[in-house]
């Protein structure tokens, strides 16, 4: 009886909607009590959850271990910066632009990377992301290495809607919910079935007449586009864009979020992102060496899965 | 763009290429032989530089310090393999990426904690500090020539080791047919252990060689690691010979690109546009080259018998 109840509670907690509703509640509470700090934190969590969600789609559903997801993320942010410099400050234009810019980067690089498998794919996605990093670091017109501040927050239908942190938080949580819903539908659709089937057995799916390459490329570009949205939101939040956004450590952190939450389920990425943001915030407040703590946490999780602890203890006891 | 400047940049490119080779050689063997993604290889390069710098400062003798740094790097390689990586070689790539990424975060912060974020000096002995006049108007630092020579010597030794010795035979056999080799009574896990530790030592040697030229700081391994990835993709995973050729190409393309892209662009576009686009194009050059290789040879330039061990 209690076990069945526990299972039900666990299933509810792990439901895709729960984490997002939790974030929305956090924003509502923080706004009601005027905790600006919590609003900022929840916004950041929602934005990184959006990026992690898109990576979870690519890694978990598509079976493509991309180590370069920071690149489309950063390109989304740069799309906002560059469009802003040319006078485009309307969020309903900026977001599609960020999506398209990130996807436009993903199509040619993905087309090349997908010609390879396994370790090659990991290294090539990392290399292309690093290429994007160095290109933006060399663009002195847009701040170069140091990055550049945005002229101001974007407008919405001409109104200065996003000047309030609360509204930006709602936009971020709303986009996260929308992206989760869309990806959920895509995963449940025929496209999603083909994608997962190709992940599990490429030869069979090809034999059935599907183009594995094209399916994967579309999924890769879709994931990148959504990461671009997240990057655009982060640019709006911090009003600052720099190449550091696409540092390869961020690609690694996004993978950490996906795997900590469980890469098999899209919702896992949202939980993983919230957990990592909280750990960063908490440890970062205690010590400047917070990456040490994060590293130990990741290592503990991975090694506890890899090592058969009971066998090890038995061997030590013997 | 004078001839001397070109010669200096070619030597600089060779020197970068040789450092990249020392890092990539160990990495490509670990990839090829064990199918293990080791992101922490850059950390081993960084630790090699730190160990050598500390040992040189402690002993006051460069040769002793370098030897201590190499032994230390080898020991660290053994420790990492036994404590962590051995448990991950049969897991999927995603977990290997995570665990080795975690090692980067941990070790980098530990080093920052112990030595601080400021660069550590590594003093060269008198013998290596000056420059040599190679031709009229061209003086080149002795140490950089030593680095080039040492790197090429290591490449030669690796070639002998892999293609002409019993150990190399085991390595080649173990990379293609691990089950068969272990059925013949060879402890294949031990072969892997030694390959890993040896690779760590080569990376540490690269760090020690680069230490006097670049600054020794906690994040010094990051860029080298990614360039080494590019090298491995171009050369073919597992191919030491491919790593040698690809590192020299990458070193030269990157160095010459950065030195001359702006000047070359100025021939076709105006000065300010060239100043804008030059650095961006130069930093893309090696990746574009990698993409080109991928289009024509998705498994890298060197595969098969002549690659020195298997390619995947």
UniProtKB/TrEMBL annotation, chain A:
The chain crosses the membrane at residues 36-58, 70-88, 94-114, 121-142, 168-187, 217-235, 255-277, 289-307. GO terms for cellular component: plasma membrane. It is found in: Cell membrane. One of its GO terms (molecular function) is branched-chain amino acid transmembrane transporter activity. CDD domains: TM_PBP1_LivM_like. It is a multi-pass membrane protein. The keyword DNA repair does not apply. Keywords: Cell membrane, Membrane, Transmembrane, Transmembrane helix. It comes from the Bacteria. InterPro entries: ABC_transp_permease, LivM-like. PANTHER family: ABC TRANSPORTER ATP-BINDING PROTEIN, HIGH-AFFINITY BRANCHED-CHAIN AMINO ACID TRANSPORT SYSTEM PERMEASE. This is Branched-chain amino acid ABC transporter permease.
Automatic annotation (TrEMBL), chain B:
Keywords: Amino-acid transport, Cell membrane, Membrane, Transmembrane, Transmembrane helix, Transport. It is found in: Cell membrane. It is a multi-pass membrane protein. GO terms for molecular function: transmembrane transporter activity. One of its GO terms (cellular component) is plasma membrane. GO terms for biological process: amino acid transport. Pfam families: BPD_transp_2 (PF02653). The chain crosses the membrane at residues 6-31, 43-60, 66-85, 97-115, 142-162, 191-214, 226-253, 274-296. InterPro entries: ABC_transp_permease (IPR001851), BCAA_transport_permease (IPR052157). PANTHER family: ABC TRANSPORTER ATP-BINDING PROTEIN, BRANCHED-CHAIN AMINO ACID TRANSPORT SYSTEM PERMEASE PROTEIN LIVH. Belongs to the binding-protein-dependent transport system permease family. LivHM subfamily. This is Branched-chain amino acid ABC transporter permease. It comes from Siculibacillus lacustris. The lineage of its organism: Bacteria, Pseudomonadati, Pseudomonadota, Alphaproteobacteria, Hyphomicrobiales.
